[in-house]
Amino acid sequence: MRADAAINKRQLLDSAAQLLAEQGPQVSLRTIARCAGVGVATLYRHFPTRESLEEALVLDTMSQVADVARWFREGEASRQRWREFAERLGSLRIGALQDRFADDAPQLAEFASVLDRRARTLKEVEAALAHAHDAGLVRDDVLAVRFIMGIAVVARPLPGRAAEMVPDQAEWLMTTYLAGLAPR
Questions:
Q1: How confident is the model over 108-136, as pLDDT tens digits?
Q2: How far apart are CA 110 and CA 158, in angstroms?
Q3: Mean pLDDT of the chain
Q4: CB 62 within 8 A of CB 118
Q5: 58 CB burial (10 A radius; 0-12, 13-18, 19+)
Q6: Cα–Cα distance measured from residue 29 to residue 15, given in angstroms and rounded to the nearest whole number
Q7: Which residues contact 5 (CB under 8 A, 6 or more apart)?
């Protein structure tokens, strides 16, 4: 793939993730292309159907989760790095995207590529959790899928004015979640 094509594809995936998280499933492909700074034809060249874009977005998000888990596992397991690990996962907007793909999950799960990537991603997260456990940061009964779903829930953007009313709510939720996972 040419360098400019790879950049366009990355911009399309980033724009799709952002807009689906912010606006939900009603966001048009034209809006995604516009946000990415490309034409609709470029979007369709990379993703011939809405479903192919959604599959690519799910695969890309899982790859990013695995990359963040690998980053944590390959460094020192300190409290600060553990917190940064959780915040990096939260920044992937998994919870907001989860709403979009909840109805499509059975269809997406049929793709061998999704099943394979899911298995590899969960292994990376399991290894990161084992690294955190060895450092005394997390209980040994925390499963990878539960950890990711927990991050998805606590990192969700607050609706409307709630974020203005309680500006430190996201930080408080993450602190409370991580404290609940700590060994007793």
A1: 656 677 788 889 999 999 999 999 999 99
A2: 32
A3: 89
A4: yes
A5: buried
A6: 10
A7: 46
Give the chain's radius of gyration (CA, Å): 17
What is the four-CA torsion angle of 81, 183, 138, 140, rounded to 10 degrees? 160
Q: In the block, which residue shows the tokens 């034209």?
A: 30
Core vs surface per residue 146-158: b (16+ CB within 10 A) or e: ebbebbbebbbee
* Whether the Cβ atoms of residue 97 and residue 104 lie closer than 8 Å to each other: no
Measured distance between the N- and C-terminal CA atoms of the chain, rounded to whole angstroms: 50
Check: CB of residue 177 under 8 Å from CB of residue 150.
yes
The pair of structure tokens assigned to 158 is 């607050």
112 residue type, one letter: A
The one-letter amino acid at 118? R
Confidence of residue 94 (pLDDT cuts 50, 70, 90): confident
Query: What's the angle, vertex CA 54, arms to CA 52 and CA 59, rounded to 5?
Result: 95
Q: DSSP character for 182?
A: S
Residue tagged 């997260």 (tokens): 125
